[in-house]
Hints:
The chain is 37% helix and 7% strand. It is mostly helical. The chain has a domain of 68 residues: Winged helix-like DNA-binding domain superfamily/Winged helix DNA-binding domain (Arc Repressor Mutant, subunit A, Orthogonal Bundle), CATH 1.10.10.10. It has a two-stranded antiparallel ribbon. It is elongated.
Amino acid sequence: MATEEAAKPSPLPPYPEMILAAIEGLGQKTGSNKSAISRYIEGKYGELPPAHASLLTAHLARMKESGELIFLKNNYFRADAPDAPPNRPRRRRLRPGEARPRQAPQGTPRGGQRDGRGLGLS
């Protein structure tokens, strides 16, 4: 009897399908945050595994890295949605009066010249 119960397939669809269905079902123009996605999945599918929170976090991160989802301002969007924002890399904002950090010229080590002259090593 124990093997029959263990052999039953899970009635839940895969997490990526549940996540995409939740984002569509919520239909928010500004995207859906993780807690709203979680509440939608809990409400629709009821009985979830005890590790639901960590599974959801891991699948959201994986889908974001693979390009299936866009993450912007703490909200998730479907990448193929017509109103999805463009996927731009994040940059740190400069504070007023702060200069951009200078990069070392290509091909030279930091802080010195190539042949060692000018380092006081005579």
